[in-house]
Structure formats: C-alpha cells, structure tokens
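Extended Data, record MARVEL domain-containing protein
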Amino acid sequence: MAVIWGLDLREIHWRKFKSSNMWNNTYHLRRTKFIVYQCAMILCVVSEALGTAALDDYRKQQNLVSSLNPSAHLHNNSFIGATSYNIFAGVFVATIFGAAFFFDLFWPERHESRSVRLAWKVCAVLACCFELAAALLMTVEVARHGVGVSGVSRAEGERLAALYKHGRAPLRYADNGRAVASAVFAWPGWVATVASAIILFLSQAHDDEFGSPLSSHARNEKAEPVEVAGSNEERGQGAYEGA
C-alpha cells in the first residue's frame, strides 16, 4: 500500500484495536491518552447532539406556529447561534483529538517535523478556547434567554407553541431538558479537552527529552539485550586471552 506523508497505510488494520495493543504500556501515556481523548470527544459530541435535537424542535415549532397563525412569529436566533457554535466547537475537538487518537494508535513511532508538532499544540490550545466559549455561551443562553414572540400576545404565543408535541419545546430554554443537558455536558467536555491538551503537551515533552515515545519500561527492555551481548563478548575475549 501507499506511504503518505511518511505514514505506511499498511499499519491501518483491525488488529490495532485489540486490547493487547491499545492498552499496553509500551508507549508513554498511551492508555491515559486513549481514555482522556475519548472522554473529550464523547462529552463534546453528546453536548452538540443534545443541542442539535433541541434546535430541531424549535425550528419545527416555529414552522408549526406560523402555519397555525400567520401573524404569530417566534424568534430563536440567539439559540440557533449558540447551538451552531457549540456544534462547531464539538466537531473541532473531535477532529483534533480524534486524529491524535488514531495517529497514536496506528503510527505510535511516527516521525513528525517541528512545524507539525507545533501545529498539534496550537490546535489543542484552540480546542480548549473554542470549547470554553461554547460552554459559556450555551450556559448563558439557556439560563437567561428564551423564545421571543411577536405578532400576537405572549399568552397566545405560548398556547400555540405548546401545540408542538405537547409542549416538548417550551419557550423558556431553561425549561427544556435537552437544552439544559447540552449546556451541562459542555462543561465536563471542556475539562476533558483541557486534560487532553495537557497530556498532548506532556507526551511531546517526553518524546523531545528521550527521542522516542517508548516508555521507560520499554526502553529498558530494549536496551537489555545489547548489554547482555556486550557482556558475552567481554567474557569471550577474556577467555581467549587466558588461553
């Protein structure tokens, strides 16, 4: 198979997903990275998925109300903006640490230039900033805002809105369980993203110091045969001189 950017595509194989390979201690912070990276991706994706579900409800509710009373208008642009940004942040986190996960799984001993290693760090920091902004935005939006009503009275707007799936999309965002859950999951997602960035930095610092991603245990095992071979050669030379 082809080699792209120095990466042998033959290494992409299902056997890499075996627990004996994924959770071994051959490489520094391997198990920690796989756990924390996945936590960041899962939590952020859950947050954006819940936000998307709530957003879809409000969009359909808006269309229903307009069809029932053309004079009534529901305004939820701020929620659309908040959830859209949360989706972007979640996708960014999943892209960066998802890529880091698969690169470490398939090519743990790959060589990367200084610019590539710097790009990993920059993207990790950006992921932390984007997800923090998303968590803050979703929290403020859900806690303080709601759907605006125009063209009819507030009471009439609430009555029409309640006709959508028996009030599944309340006008006050704080009363919407999916919207609240989306904001809540964004925070542990951000914490896991920060932890992932720290681990990425520590992993690169280890590689720079020792010139290899191998753990201390693996490096010692790799050096032992060389030392034993050297000792055998010395014993053989001593025996020859004695003879």
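Summary. Residues 96 and 123 are 7 Å apart (CA to CA).
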